[in-house]
Amino acid sequence: MLSQPPLSSHANQVHLKNWYPIPPIFWRPWGKLPENIPCHPKLADFANCMKKKGRGMSIFFSIIDGDYHELAEDAKNACRQLSTYIDYKCCEGVAEIIVAPTMSDGFRGIVQTMGLGNLKPNIVVMRYPEIWRRETLTQIPSTFVSIINDCIIANKAVVIVKGLDEWPGEYQRQYGTIDLYWIVRDGGLMLLLSQLFLTKESFESCKIQVFCIAEEDTEAEELKADVKKFLYNLRMQAEVIVITMKS
């Protein structure tokens, strides 16, 4: 006899200590989207780095502009292609392709409805639109800002990845540092992601540097000590560097 229904009211009680990323990845179905859409094939590699020991599910999604009645079959074919690529990349995830009148409308629907209970995505991952300055692509800034605003309203974290062409492959070992610029309070998201990166073979030889910004009239050494204590309490090894600026 069940003491609770399968979908209990406790499904949304997520504590800070057991929060883990469930990212929807903004993807490009081959030949279906123009260059100005914030997608990139290497987002699959980035998504794998966000999982600890392979745990957690990703949702790879994309939006095709147009009429659903006319493009439903195209969406199904694109979804099959995407599912095949996800399997090839050994990602734990599912594919979703929807048809909407505009990119903004489609994303707004996805961010509201995708997932169920604690399986709802909580962190949106997409590429930074690096070609937005081209005169022929005037809609990029407004679409990009609209997507960010929708994420904020839906209470989703956002990871915007720049320079994906240079992102290392799964077995390309990296050396050097992972630099975190702690400029605004983000709830510890950057710290979490950097720790998840270190669990991957590609980044396990890297060190973490945390850069903090202090105004000239503040006590830089005191700030550095506070941050080091905070990181120590998190059992996180990182070098703390304080940068002093006028404002």
Quick check: average pLDDT?
79
Q: How many helices does DSSP assign?
A: 6
What overall geometry do the principal axes of the alpha carbons give?
globular
Low-confidence regions: 1-9
Largest sheet: 3 strands, parallel
Q: What Rg is obtained from the alpha carbons, in whole angstroms?
A: 20 Å
The percentage of residues in β strands lies in 15-25%
Rounded to the nearest angstrom, the distance between the terminal CA atoms is: 63 Å
Query: What letter string, H or E per element, gives the SSE order?
Result: EHEHEHEHEEHEHE
CATH class assignment of the largest domain: Alpha Beta
Domain count:
2
Just name the CATH architecture of the largest domain: 3-Layer(aba) Sandwich
Characterization of the model:
The chain is of the alpha/beta class. It folds into 2 domains: 19-166, Rossmann fold (3-Layer(aba) Sandwich), CATH 3.40.50.620; 177-245, no CATH class. The chain is built from 6 helices and 8 strands, in the order E-H-E-H-E-H-E-H-E-E-H-E-H-E. Helix 3 (103-113) packs parallel to helix 4 (140-153).
Quick overview:
Helix content is 31%, strand content 21%. With 247 residues, the protein is an alpha/beta fold.
Question: What distinguishing features does this structure have?
Answer:
three-stranded parallel β-sheet, alpha/beta, globular, single chain, 2 domains, 21% strand, 247 residues, 31% helix, Rossmann fold, disordered N terminus
